[in-house]
Design brief:
Structural class: alpha/beta
Order of helices and strands: EHEHEEHEHEHEHEEEEEHHEH
Helix content: 25-40%
Shape: globular
Strand content: 15-25%
Number of helices: 9
Strand order of the largest sheet: 12-11-7-10-9-8-13
């Protein structure tokens, strides 16, 4: 049993997650049913300016986090030696390798918020550094731990999952191209249901939506629909041996459920998601972008082999 609270540092305030995670970990300004235990956010670095929010938003979030009892520092490196673990919350996936490297080299466990990276190359490099220093790294959308998906995976009456369809918003941003910016949420749900093993993807891209059809090595088919127009929502349909299960996803407790796994990893140093799965998810999104750009089916192996 871990008696001492894990001291957490947060890098990057340009996502609302920085505030929401701090509230749940530090038990401030949020209902008790949202609390997670075993850690405290003690230090934060805003890491501005940002391409995602303006300076005023960063200042507002910095003030809120400071009021949660967090010391605000002037650089990420100031945290080394003063925290036990780090939440990397900077939105731009292309910066994650550079920021993660000194923490991993210092032996500090790391949670990297979505997107983990925007390339297979960067994803592999982060895990290589982590492995060489025997440090756990974890990345996931909170949607992976939606109660509805957890419930699906625990059911014994539906038999084998033969295929699935998921949907989520897929708003885009030039710094996180393709589905890396927000489509990651629905893709994480798809992988939570289907598991690893996708071999090819075909992405049909239009201005207001993307539809990605993935074929797994056992001939199961997984489909993701990302929307940029109309009513936003999250949900899935799982096609199983003995049932078809469809559900909307209630997002009220997804941060709490994700943070439970994050803090458990910080305590035990056991990664909740296998690195190979995280790399394949990045490859799925990179291959989807390649498929859309070149108007063809793309093999996952094509992007996995790229350096």
């Amino acid at each position: 049993m871990v008696k001492d609270l894990i001291r957490i540092g947060i890098v990057g305030f340009d996502t609302s997650h920085a505030v929401e995670f701090t509230k749940r970990i530090n038990h401030v300004s949020i209902s008790e049913d949202q609390w997670v235990y075993g850690a405290k956010v003690v230090m934060g670095y805003p890491a501005g300016p940002s391409s995602f929010v303006d300076d005023n938003v960063l200042m507002q979030r910095t003030q809120i986090i400071k009021e949660c009892g967090v010391e605000i520092v002037n650089s990420a490196e100031e945290m080394i030696g003063r925290v036990d673990a780090v939440l990397l919350e900077l939105q731009e996936g292309g910066l994650h390798l550079k920021i993660a490297k000194p923490f991993l080299e210092a032996g500090i466990p790391l949670f990297v918020d979505k997107p983990f990276t925007c390339s297979v190359s960067d994803a592999k490099k982060i895990f290589e550094i982590a492995r060489s220093h025997n440090v756990p790294v974890f990345s996931s959308s909170a949607l992976r731990y939606a109660l509805e998906i957890q419930g699906l995976k625990q059911r014994k009456d539906i038999g084998e999952i033969l295929g699935a369809e998921t949907y989520s918003p897929a708003t885009s941003h030039p710094k996180n191209p393709g589905l890396f910016n927000y489509g990651i949420h629905g893709i994480e749900m798809l992988y939570a249901i289907m598991g690893v093993g996708c071999e090819t993807v075909r992405c049909f891209h239009k201005e207001n939506w993307d539809v990605v059809v993935g074929i797994w090595r056992d001939e199961r088919i997984g489909v993701f629909r990302g929307t940029r127009k109309g009513q936003y929502g999250y949900g899935f349909t799982a096609f199983c041996e003995k049932s078809i299960v469809s559900s909307n996803v209630d997002t009220r407790y997804i941060y709490r459920e994700l943070l439970k796994r994050v803090i458990e990893m910080f305590q035990t140093r056991n990664m909740p998601v296998n690195p190979e799965e995280t790399i394949e998810i990045v490859a799925f999104m990179e291959a989807s972008m390649k498929s859309a750009n070149e108007n063809r089916e793309c093999k996952i192996s094509e992007v996995l082999k790229e350096k």
